[in-house]
Amino acid sequence: MRYLPASTLSGLLGDWADGTGPAYRVLSERLRLLIADGRIMPGSRLPSERELTEALGVSRTTVASAYRELRDSGYLISRRGSGSVTALPSKVAPELGRHHAPGIDTDGLYDFTCAAPSAIPGISAAVAAAAAEMPVHLTTPGYHPQGLPVLRAEIAAAYGERGLPTSPDQIIVTAGALAATSIAVRAVTQIGDRVLTESPTHPNSVDAIRRSGCRVVAVPMSPGGWDLPLLEATIRQTAPRAAWLVVDFQNPTGFLMPAADRQRLAAAFARSRTTAIVDETLFELSLDGQEMPPPFASYDPDGVITVGSVSKSFWGGLRIGWMRVPSSLVARVLDARASLDLGAPVLEQLVVADLLRQRATLLPERRAALAERRDALADAVARELPSWNFRLPGGGLSLWCELPEPVGSSLVGVAQRYGALLVAGSRFSPDGGLESFVRLPFTLEVDALREGVARVAESYAALTMAAPGRRSPVMIA
């Protein structure tokens, strides 16, 4: 259980007294929104009534009445000896049921659930070249638990070009980044260990961490990115065995962690002996030509496992990812991998090796196309949904949009009736909340993005004037 000091809570509340109505109700509503949006995580212990009264300079009755309203609405649970702990009245349930295949069984719908673009030009030629190499491999059993040497050499060389010396023996090829995350977590944790993550973050990866038997410790992102003091305090208080982070155009917020913050955070992990598992899947998708910070592992080469993939840069259908593993952990990671699979497909590995050799010529076109789509989506949202707030990310694949009210889950069901598939922000929160947010990927064609936003705007207008609709099950990419 995390304790929220009165001084910290006062800062989160800001100028709450500017609202209209009774002071206790304004305070209660402000606290409710902070909890619903994940700025105060569920399970946090709030300061006592006396402590908050002194911090805010209001009457004890105001705070007591605000807490009572929160208890009555299910956002606060008070127990003798435990204080007042935040909660969600009906925690957003996991999205169960039929998983749709983006772009295949979504005919007639504008699909904003999948943050993955279609294949880059050149895939077919790479497949043909790989097929010509296959006869040599057909005489072998075809199992490569660590990956084909030719692909591991290309991946290692790419890290070296970024200033992170890497041996091919440190590379382990997997069937995508999610598989790499699952293997890495199993290798460095035991059942019941804590794993630190951001909130919001990629939900499938959080699910994989939990299925490994670990407890997720989610740290909220601030409106400006990573809250380093809060991260450091959480690391000290919880001593997580591992951490899973996305520091390059974070999914879904699009933030890029600066070099100084990487160095500071890596030092915090090193002090607590926390193994950082850093997902760099979106590293190649810098859309504004900015210089990228050094790899996170540069600041602690022996304590960081780096996860990579070609699913966003080349094509998700290749299903090839990898890990860059400290030499001391390679054997342990390979042992953990043996219980999950025996290696990635040979043909796809040959294809990816060929594509990596050509990345200097292939990726600029990919970035240019995504930048055009990002700008088109941003223009459409600003025009059709002017009350929604977002920041234009310098890379990645999506806009993280904040709505004026916490209606994200309701909007999902209404939008489908208007022809658009959405994912509510709550799906990206490990602990619930974030109901005021929606992720909008810019992976559709420009015209489809514009029409899709128009459908979302129609559904949002209908929602704000009518009862919320039902949710629809979706799979997150």
TrEMBL record:
This protein's record includes keyword Cell membrane: no
A GO molecular-function annotation: transaminase activity
Keywords: Aminotransferase, DNA-binding, Pyridoxal phosphate, Transcription, Transcription regulation, Transferase
Domain HTH gntR-type stretches: 21-89
Pfam families, per the entry: Aminotran_1_2, GntR
SUPFAM superfamilies: PLP-dependent transferases, Winged helix' DNA-binding domain
The keyword Transferase is annotated on this UniProt entry: yes
Family: In the C-terminal section; belongs to the class-I pyridoxal-phosphate-dependent aminotransferase family.
Name by which UniProt lists this protein: PLP-dependent aminotransferase family protein
Lineage start: Bacteria, Bacillati, Actinomycetota, Actinomycetes, Propionibacteriales
